[in-house]
Amino acid sequence: MKCPMCEHPTKVTETRSIAPQETHRRHHCHKCGHKFTTIEVIAEKVSGKLKAPPPPKTHQWRKPVKAAPSPYPTPAPTPLPERKVRAEDLLEAKRLRDSLEDY
Description:
Layout: E1 11-19, E2 22-28, E3 35-41, E4 44-46, E5 49-51, H1 87-101
C-alpha cells in the first residue's frame, strides 16, 4: 500500500482480526515516517453487485427477574417510644431560640 502523504510504499507493522470479517492493519512509511491504520472488510458478491456485510449484532439484555415472594411475613414496624415533654424544657428551648435570634 502507498503512503497517503508521500506515495512511497509502506510496511505493515501490526495486524489484528477484530471480527470474522474485519481486519485492522497498522502501516508505517519508512520514507516520511507517517503511520496510519486501514480496516479491511470482506464483502459478499450477490447478483453481480457487492453487498456490505451485515452490521454486528448488539447484545439484547434480558428483562430483570423479579424476586420470589418471601415465605415469611413482613414484620410490623416498631413504634417509636413516646417522649414526655416537660413544660420547663419547652420554656428553656424558647429562651434559647429567642437568644439566638438576637444575634
